[in-house]
Design goal:
Layout (H helix, E strand, L loop, with lengths): L2 E4 L3 H13 L3 E7 L6 H5 L2 E6 L10 H10 L4 E3 L9 H9 L3 E2 L4 H8 L1 H8 L17 H11 L3 E5 L8 E4 L2 H19 L4 E5 L5 E9 L5 E13 L2 E7 L6 H17 L4 E9 L5 E7 L6 H8 L3 H9 L16 E8 L1 E2 L5 E2 L6 E3 L6 E5 L14 E9 L2 H14 L1 E3 L5 H9 L1 H5 L6 H5 L2 H24 L6 H18 L1
Parallel strand pairs: 1-2, 1-4, 2-3, 4-5
Antiparallel strand pairs: 6-7, 6-8, 9-10, 9-12, 10-11, 11-14, 12-13, 14-19, 15-16, 17-20, 18-19
Helix pairs in contact: 4-5, 5-6, 7-8, 12-13, 16-17
Bound molecules: adenosine-5'-diphosphate.
The site of adenosine-5'-diphosphate has 19 residues, from strand 12 and strand 13.
Length: 494
């Protein structure tokens, strides 16, 4: 493989190109008219404009992308995440055109793209499942009978769902019929497939997923877990590895289950098997994501494995160079997704221009981003600006570094999830590891950000008065800044 095309944009396109470059592979970037000046376009050896800004006229045009790939004689296409990454037809079309799809084969994408087909496929491996139905539910009567059997609350889910969409919690029988109708119409319009099914609603679960890697020679390993319980709208914002709750035995069992899920669909490449886990450490299979996951850096940092390089090696037909026994967890990593969203306003997207954009640096800090100062956050795509990842010898050090890195990250022009990240890192529940998927609902409100700011302003005010009294007027502003950050650090330690 001498030349690969990245059918994606932003941070993940850059991330992939960096590994390709280290392997001596030429890169081709694609871009829409909205991304003409993006760093991923400048970084690539070649770049091709694929169409106007809306993704259905650019990044989702599979046929056009394959045509361009053929013209430019690329050997492989890396789809990143989102866009065409889980589109089985695209994977198949690439292979038919003689271009390696850097990801699993199309049949694995097809099976795992349907939550119901996935459950069916893994049945013979004895993998724990959330109690519920394994077939699409057709009418409300059937749904009520099933819901009564498993007990309320239940969750109606779209089989083709993704990105936290198409899910409805139903607390009581009376609400079921209406909620089911809504779920079906939501699933039909969002995914073109109205099949829904029912799962028991696990009341306070953690979301823990396992990274797997498989080659074309039948070898499958796992690279341990990622804890992704801090979510808003059923979507992840903070992830970490390893999880504080897993015992070596549960880790081993979940790892083996994940490897079996991969085996169930003849998986090839890097994939993620998602589980929910309850407070008794019972775990339940949710779904498999057949792509490189947004939060893959935390696994890279604790395992020392470059997942993109591995994807490329596997796509070249090479055998994995290590076995499960060769892999171990070293240190701790945390990722904060820095979204252009306003945490004080229900995490609504906050588009605009990055009038200031300075990324943190220094020991244990990795920033995967796709922006530069002065750029606009386009309205057409996911509003993620960057992934801020910190690594430490232990969790305490990773948290301390995250607090420092958030403080060092300077973004003006849009609201971001950075203050939310700071809130999480200082929260007693997070620090003690006592979290579940309801963290945001249970602990966070717009007021908590205001009170953080107020507390900071209050302390700054007190310190300023104190320093003025001591006659340190000239340097007072800088001293106050330093003193406030010291106060913040102490608060974290306490
Ligand atoms: P999607 O494919 O839309 O991301 P998932 O099945 O992966 O959907 O679930 C996303 C999130 O929704 C989970 O991390 C969890 O917070 C919540 N969730 C999903 N299924 C359940 C369930 N049965 N009980 C409680 N929460 C659930």
């Amino acid at each position: 493989m001498k030349k690969i095309m990245i059918a994606n944009r932003g941070e993940i396109a850059l991330r992939i190109m960096r590994s390709a470059k280290e392997m001596g592979i030429q890169t081709v970037a694609l871009y829409s008219e909205a991304d003409r000046l993006s760093p991923h376009v400048q970084y690539a050896d070649e770049a091709v404009c694929i169409g106007p800004p809306p993704s259905n006229q650019s990044y989702l045009l599979g046929d056009k992308i394959i045509k361009v790939a053929k013209e430019l004689k690329v050997d492989g296409i890396h789809p990143g995440y989102g866009f065409l990454s889980e589109n089985a037809d695209f994977a198949e079309a690439a292979e038919k055109a003689g271009i390696a799809f850097i990801g699993p084969r199309s049949h694995a994408i097809r099976i795992m793209g349907s939550k119901l087909a996935a459950k069916e496929a893994v049945k013979k491996y004895d993998i724990p499942m959330v109690p519920g139905t394994d077939k699409a539910i057709l009418d409300a009567k059937e749904a009520i009978a099933i819901a009564k059997k498993i007990g309320f609350p239940i969750l109606i889910k779209a089989s083709a769902g993704g990105g936290g969409k198409g899910m409805r919690v139903v607390e009581k029988e009376e609400e079921l019929e209406e909620q089911m109708q809504r779920a079906v119409s939501e699933a039909t319009s969002a995914f073109g497939d109205g099949s829904v099914f029912i799962e028991k609603y696990i009341s306070s679960p953690r979301h823990i997923e396992i990274q797997v890697l498989a080659d074309t020679h039948g070898n499958v390993v796992h690279l341990f877990e990622r804890e992704c319980s801090i979510q808003r709208r059923h979507q992840k914002v903070v992830e970490e590895a390893p999880s504080v709750v897993l015992t070596p035995e549960v880790r081993q069992a979940m790892g083996q289950s994940a490897v079996n899920v991969a085996k169930a669909c003849d998986y090839v490449g890097a994939g993620t098997v998602e589980f929910l886990i309850d407070d008794q450490l019972n775990y339940y299979f949710l779904e498999m994501n057949t792509r490189l996951q947004v939060e893959h850096p935390v696994s890279e940092l604790i395992s020392g494995v470059d997942l993109v390089k591995q994807q490329i090696l596997v796509a070249r037909g090479e055998k994995l160079a290590f076995t499960q026994e060769d892999l171990s967890i070293n240190g701790h990593a945390i990722e904060l997704r820095v979204y252009a969203e306003d945490p004080a306003n229900n995490f609504l997207p906050s588009v605009g221009t990055l009038s200031t954009y300075q990324v943190p640096q220094g020991p244990g800090v990795r920033v995967d981003d796709g922006y530069a100062e002065g750029m606009d956050i386009p309205i057409y795509y996911d509003p993620m600006i960057a992934k801020l990842v910190t690594y430490g010898k232990d969790r305490q050090e990773a948290i301390t570094r995250m607090v420092r890195a958030i403080d060092d990250y300077k973004i003006n022009g849009v609201e971001t999830t950075l203050p939310f990240g700071a809130f999480v890192m200082r929260h007693e529940a997070f620090i003690s590891g006592n979290i579940d998927t309801h963290f945001v609902k249970d602990h966070f409100s717009a007021e908590s950000l205001i009170s953080e700011n107020e507390a900071e302003a209050h302390v700054a005010g007190l310190l300023a008065v104190h320093l003025l009294k001591k006659g340190k007027t000239a340097k007072s502003q800088k001293s106050v800044g330093q003193a406030v950050s010291k106060w913040k650090q102490n608060r974290l330690r306490n």
